[in-house]
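batch job 7 of whatever, protein = Exodeoxyribonuclease III
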Amino acid sequence: MRIATYNVNNVVSRFDPLLDWLAQEEPDVVCLQELKAEQGRFPAEPLAQLGYQAVWRGQRSWNGVAILARGAEPILTRSQLPGDPDPSQARYIEAAVEGVLVGCLYLPNGNPKPGPKFAYKLAWFEALLAHAQDLLASGAPVVLAGDYNVVPTEADLYANHSWAGDALLAPQARAAFQRLLEQGWTDALRAVHPDAAPWTFWSYLRERWPRDKGLRIDHLLVSPDLAGQLVDAGVDRWVRGEAHASDHAPAWIVLDR
């Protein structure tokens, strides 16, 4: 079972690259973030023609999350994070797919910091921590996948970087991510690639893609029972190099199910 996460950075304007990736890689489950489309503008019919059923929560101009399933119907369980400090923002959706509960999330960026956006990031993280603990307590096999907007460690970005004051590297955000792992979740990319987990994001600025100045901010966390079924994980870097690409590349895991 191949489960992927991809910040598509506008599902309408970047629909063709999305289709190309789906057709070539054929993931079984896909978590999408930054749809940047109202609910009624999500391209459900073209995706269905490719074999993907979907649940989604759109938002005009910003945010937006979706879960796609190939040859199966995702069963919606939540369209909002419990305790979300601003439920008007479309940042979380959850569905059951072929015996796995999949949570798709788009954690707030938090910049500039300090300020209300950073405070919202930390408050959202606290709500996620509480829900993640409840998910573990349920005993269900769970994957929490998405754009966490957190670079967990200095090993997760290029050397001699200029991101030190950014909310993605803030000690509070890194500590919150570590608290997730301490609950019992496994960072799948790091588990499969302990020495050099692949980057998932390259800014459009300062030629960071052609110079390979990347960050790892898209993560797939798996519950303890699924950690034993994890057989592979990686990033489809080629997608970032396509014309009119998102600044993210899809990250994925393979479970032996």
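notes: The chain is about 25% helix and 25% strand.
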